Structure formats: structure tokens, C-alpha cells
């Protein structure tokens, strides 16, 4: 995924609704929904400390410092030097902080840096069966980091290989470390030779079927999926529509490439009053087996997981 090199000027500074951060213990208690809109930031920026400390964008819930596609090969040394200078100075806070290493060798370097325990985890790019062993070989879990692998290679188009990858994650003990799996939309579109237009959501492209397949392969088995980036800054209405489609596909969280996208994405996570009331009724201890509410059939046995997700979103993002 490429990150557009634009300036970060605007982000609302009001307190996020219901957000709370669990500080590092042995393994942080964390829900993927707490990621909200995850802002990608090139590690070469000179204001990493201000961003990572939460001072620049106080409403931001999660940030990913990138050393991969957002950083030119010739600038990688600078990016790593910036991170090495930043990490020892980091203090615990509400902002969830992740790093995307360029490759396994870079991950190994990062894991050896002073202060690496202050970040919450790593975003693993180009993650598939082919490269799984390379990442596993350098992994060091002494700081109990979370992992967010990105599904963005040609293997993501192959249901059988994705099922095998899911099984491999279970077999190698990585399951408990994976906060979520991220879908790399732009890399997948690139493999098809496609770039969606400004007025088109990712669900207007062939990736609609790929995302649906990934949801069916991973979600029933307890994994979470985050939604692809929307690369245009001048059509927030299309981004808002895409967020609605993300939720309909069971996706949790979304990549943002500019602070102005954060509010659009997280406004889409707010829960309408009727859904909140319906979810509360479904989860009520005295709920009957089947009932009607808001002209809809409700059955706690089959709608419970939906209701729990709705209540979590309401807690984090509010009710409208």
C-alpha cells in the first residue's frame, strides 16, 4: 500500500467517545475495534515524537509508522534512525502505536532497538504462506507485541491458500498474538492492473468477492479483518459509503492515509439509535427466544454476535 505524501494539518481535537487504553502488562487487553481509523505515517517524518506522543493528533486512536511502501529504499536508513531515536523516549498513553517493517531483516533490527517494548505491535506486510517462515524465523515475543499481518499478495485470491494460512497460524501459535488481519486493497488491485476511480468504492471492483471470501475464511474462526485504504482525499462521501460496506462485510477498523479521513471513517462507526436499542434488547438477560422490534425479526441465538459488535461500537464511537 502506498501512502500519499501530503501534509497533516487538520484533525479534530475533541476527546474520542468512550475510548480507553490498556497499558502494557504481560499482554495488553485490546479489542480490534479500539484501532478505529489507523493512520499510516512514514517513518522518515521529522515529527514522529509529536505524533507518537499523542500531541499532534489527540483524537487519533492508532498510528502505524511505516518503513515499507511509504519509504523509498534510499531513505530506509533515515526512517530506522528516526525510530531508534523515538522509541526510548516513548511513554505509555492512549494512542496505540505500531510499526510496519519493510521485511524480516528490518523487523529483526527493530526488535533489537531500545524502547521497542513501548510500541503495541507490528504490521507485517506481504504476509502469506510463501514468506511465513521468514517472519517466524526472526520473531521474538519477549515484549508480547500484537501482530497485524497484511493479506496483499497473489495468494489472497486463492481460497485454498488462505485456508492453509489460517491453519498455519493456529499450528505455529501465532493466533493469540494476532490482533487482526489487514486487507491490502491497493496491492491487490495492482495485481489486477486496476485502480478504482474517485467515485468508486473497493466493492465496485473485483475485490468485492475477495473480501467476501476472506471474511468467510477468517471471521467464523475468531480472526478479525480490517478494511483497505481509500486513496482519495477529495471524495469523503465515497469514503463514507465504503465504510458502510466495510461494516456489512464484517470488517473492523480501516487504514487512513490522512488525518482528514479519520473523522469520516469513525463517524461511520457510530451506531444509529434503533440499532443500539435493538442490540440492547437482544442482549438483555430476559430476552425471549424470538421477538419483533423496529419492524424486524430478532432472535438472540442468531443475532448475538452482531449485537455485541454494535454495543462495542456504540461504547467507542457513540450513538446517533
Largest sheet: 8 strands, parallel
Distance between the termini: 33 Å
Q: Gyration radius, to the nearest Å? A: 19 Å
Strand residues, percent: 5-15%
Number of helices: 11
Structural class: alpha/beta
Number of domains: 2
What percent of residues adopt helix (DSSP H or I)?
25-40%
Overall geometry comes to globular
Q: Report mean pLDDT, rounded to a whole number.
A: 91
Quote the CATH topology of the largest domain. Answer: TIM Barrel
Query: Class of the largest domain, according to the CATH hierarchy?
Result: Alpha Beta
Instruction: State the CATH superfamily name of the largest domain.
Output: Phosphoenolpyruvate-binding domains
Strand numbers in spatial order across the main sheet: 7-6-5-4-3-2-1-8
Low-confidence stretches: 1-26
CATH architecture of the largest domain: Alpha-Beta Barrel
Order of secondary-structure elements: EHEHEHEHEHEHHEHEHHEEH
Number of strands: 10
Characterize the structure shown.
The chain is 37% helix and 12% strand. It is an alpha/beta fold and 320 residues long. It folds into 2 domains: 32-269, Phosphoenolpyruvate-binding domains (TIM Barrel), CATH 3.20.20.60; 270-320, no CATH class. Strands 7-6-5-4-3-2-1-8 form an 8-stranded parallel β-sheet. Helix 5 (159-171) runs parallel beside helix 7 (207-218), helix 8 packs across helix 9 (259-268) and helix 10 crosses helix 11 (300-317).
Amino acid at each position: 500500500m502506498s501512502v500519499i505524501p501530503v501534509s497533516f494539518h487538520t484533525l479534530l481535537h475533541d476527546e474520542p467517545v468512550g475510548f480507553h487504553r490498556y497499558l502494557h502488562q504481560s499482554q495488553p487487553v485490546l479489542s480490534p475495534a479500539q484501532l478505529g481509523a489507523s493512520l499510516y505515517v512514514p517513518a522518515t517524518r521529522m515529527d514522529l515524537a509529536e505524533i507518537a506522543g499523542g500531541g499532534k493528533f489527540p483524537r487519533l486512536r492508532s498510528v502505524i509508522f511505516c518503513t515499507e511502501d511509504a519509504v523509498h529504499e534510499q531513505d530506509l536508513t533515515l526512517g530506522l534512525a528516526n525510530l531508534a531515536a523515538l522509541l526510548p523516549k516513548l511513554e505509555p498513553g492512549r494512542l496505540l502505536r505500531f510499526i510496519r517493517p519493510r521485511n524480516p531483516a528490518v523487523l529483526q533490527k527493530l526488535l533489537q532497538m531500545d524502547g521497542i517494548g513501548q510500541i503495541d505491535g507490528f504490521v507485517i506486510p506481504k504476509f502469506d504462506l510463501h514468506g511465513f517462515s521468514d517472519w517466524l524465523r526472526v520473531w521474538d515475543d519477549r515484549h508480547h507485541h500484537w501482530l497485524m499481518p497484511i493479506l496483499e499478495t497473489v495468494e489472497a485470491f486463492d481460497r485454498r491458500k488462505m485456508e492453509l494460512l489460517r491453519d498455519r497460524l493456529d499450528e505455529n501459535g501465532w493466533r493469540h498474538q494476532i490482533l487482526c488481519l489487514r486487507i491490502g486493497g491497493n496491492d491487490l488491485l495492482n495485481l489486477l492492473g486496476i485502480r478504482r476511480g474517485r467515485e468508486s468504492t473497493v466493492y465496485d471492483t473485483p475485490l468485492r468477492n475477495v473480501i467476501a471470501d476472506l471474511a468467510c475464511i477468517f471471521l467464523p474462526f475468531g480472526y478479525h479483518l480490517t478494511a483497505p485504504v481509500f486513496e482519495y482525499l477529495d471524495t469523503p462521501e465515497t469514503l463514507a459509503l465504503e465504510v458502510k460496506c466495510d461494516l456489512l462485510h464484517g470488517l473492523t477498523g480501516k487504514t487512513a492515509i490522512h488525518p482528514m479521513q479519520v473523522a469520516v471513517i469513525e463517524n461511520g462507526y457510530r451506531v444509529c439509535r434503533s440499532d443500539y436499542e435493538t442490540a440492547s434488547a437482544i442482549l438483555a438477560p430476559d430476552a425471549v427466544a424470538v421477538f419483533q422490534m423496529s419492524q424486524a425479526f430478532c432472535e438472540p441465538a442468531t443475532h448475538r454476535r452482531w449485537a455485541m459488535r454494535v454495543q462495542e461500537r456504540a461504547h467507542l464511537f457513540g450513538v446517533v
